[in-house]
Amino acid sequence: MKIYTRTGDKGETGLIGGKRTSKADPRIVAYGAVDELNSSIGMANCILAAGEVFADLIDVFTKVQNDLFVVGSDLADPDYPASKHNTPRVTEDMASALEPVIDKFESELTPITFFILPGGNTQASILHVCRSVARRAETAVTALANNEKINPATMVYLNRLSDLLFVAARVANKRLGVSDVAWRK
Fold it and tell me: Is the dihedral of CA 106, 111, 113, 119 positive or negative?
């Protein structure tokens, strides 16, 4: 099978169910942002792999990447909630499953007493980039939800994921003995 189909050469793409739509449609923008987030997390895992103290983070983010495929497919099916296509759907349990992970990593950290700038070390920095991409994806999904019916669990998942990425960035700094970078007025 060839990777190119030429069906998108005029700025349209297909959704689950066969409907054609503009590549600038808010639905496409939303799941494109989720795809970018997934790619960013893949890059983060590569960078985390350079350190021996991050195996648990890599495991978590590999699971997250699989979850993001579900988020993307959920958004690519315009027939929410009743789809005839057996589309995987995001569940509330997916976001809930991130909460004990956040709590576990947060238990390694001291309480925040200042605003934190993205940075510290390379590993923390890429996780902050992922967090900002997650926020942008959440914004795109929210914009879509303002005009179309979508699975609300997608927004909850992305919100919780950005929290996890923030905590993971702080953990990366801590484990490598680097202080979080404080915002200075």
Answer: negative
Is the Cβ–Cβ distance between 133 and 165 less than 8 Å?
no
Taking the alpha carbons of 123, 49, 166, 26 in that order, is the dihedral positive or negative? positive
φ, ψ of residue 15 in degrees (nearest 5): -100, 165
- pLDDT digit string, tens, across residues 94-151: 999 999 999 999 999 999 988 999 999 999 999 999 999 999 999 999 999 999 999 9
For domain 19-182, which architecture applies?
A: Up-down Bundle (1.20)
SS3 99: helix
If phi > 0 it is left, if psi is from -120 to 50 it is alpha, else beta; for residue 78 that is alpha
Residue extents of the structural domains in the chain: 19-182
